[in-house]
Amino acid sequence: MILRAPVEAPQRSDAKPDLTVVILTFNEAHHVGRAIASVRGIARDVLVVDSFSTDATVEVAQEAGARVVQHPFTSHAAQLQWALDHGAIATGWTLRLDADELIEPDLASAIVRTLPILDAGVTGVLLNRKHIFMGRWIRHGGRHPLWLLRIWRTGAGRVERRWMDEHVVVGRGRTIQLAGGFADANAGDLTFFTAKHNGYASREAVEVLAARYALFDRDGDSEAVALSPPARRKRQVKRLVYDRLPLWAAPLGYFLFRYVGQGGFLDGRPGLIYHVLQGFWYRFLVAAKVAEWDRELAACSSGSARLVRLAVLSGLPIAPSA
After folding, report:
1. What single-letter DSSP state applies at residue 8?
2. Are 143 and 131 in contact (CB under 8 A)?
3. Contacts made by residues 297-305, CB under 8 angstroms, sequence distance 24+
4. In terms of Cα–Cα distance, which of 131, 102, 77, 96 is closest to 279?
């Protein structure tokens, strides 16, 4: 069910719902003020968990009215779970917002009007994220609609223990979809984009190899049950179809499906650049890292030895209990 509300933005402070917004940061001075401003009218508290930024992130966030705490970073999943466990969140609802994301006025209004009237059986709210790339909204290639569980009743949600593609999952109740503008609008250039995705590729390669060699102790089945339906379908298709294709076929087939089958070509020149980089180059880079690292892991004599080697190869702080 998709709920809709009038588009006017909330203005009165006493109209704010019982909501805390959590934002993770590291050197996000150019983004974080904008993100906080977008939720100022809907949040009773904005909690910024910073990974010891070396720029002005902390100062900008505090000046914008956020409560800032600092904690060492290992992964997005671990950092967000630490925020939920130790961030002194006192409101009934929690919203996760990345530093480069924005809640637009129509969605802000919908949140203000909807959260207070939801019955106790609703524990999660999915938002429809749109991706802005090189100044253009990427509408095609399967990038929109993209429903993500970003609001949940405090205490009902937890974060999957993953190095990449982690989701907040709710283990009880039901979820709804709330319509309105929710934008991923990173201000970085292509150098930033490719560097970021290179890091993402290492994390995703770790996930693939960890599953292949059963390196992490996880309650995967229970996590899958609690995932939102869109996330669960996407993960099932990846596991049952994509991961079984040859190295060259999977990225190429995925790109052609997105760019031709799902109309990615309709996104113009920015869309061409985006879909090639994110839909082919990135997927191929993940597969290449998996192939490279798998050769070394196969030579290891034990699971603990593979974990140690994978930490060296990926540069990630992987521990035996990861």
Report:
1. P
2. yes
3. 297/209, 297/213, 303/213, 303/214, 303/215
4. 131
Phi, then psi, of 131 in degrees rounded to 5: -105, 125
Residues 181 and 105 sit within 8 Å (Cβ to Cβ): yes
First to last CA, the chain: 36
Q: Determine if the pTM surpasses 0.85.
A: yes
Q: In whole angstroms, give the CA distance from residue 31 to residue 235.
A: 30
**Predicted confidence band at 285 (pLDDT cuts at 50, 70, 90)?**
very high
The dihedral formed by the CA atoms of 15, 96, 151 and 164, expressed in degrees to the nearest 10: 170
Give the rounded distance of the alpha carbon of 240 from its chain centre: 22
The one-letter code for the residue type at 95 is: L
> Has residue 222 got a pLDDT over 90?
no
Q: How far apart are CA 82 and CA 94, in angstroms?
A: 14
Specify the pLDDT at position 168.
95
Kindly report the backbone phi and psi dihedral angles of residue 7, in degrees, each rounded to the nearest multiple of 5, phi listed first: -90, -5
List of residues 6+ apart from 181 with CB closer than 8 A: 102, 103, 104, 105, 106, 107, 130
> What pairs with residue 101 in β-bridges?
184
pLDDT digit string, tens, across residues 163-198: 999 999 998 999 999 999 999 999 999 999 999 999
Query: With bands split at pLDDT 50, 70 and 90, how would you rate the model's confidence at 320?
Result: low
Helical residues (DSSP H) of the chain, grouped into ranges: 32-39, 57-63, 76-86, 105-114, 190-212, 220-226, 229-240, 249-256, 268-276, 282-298, 303-314
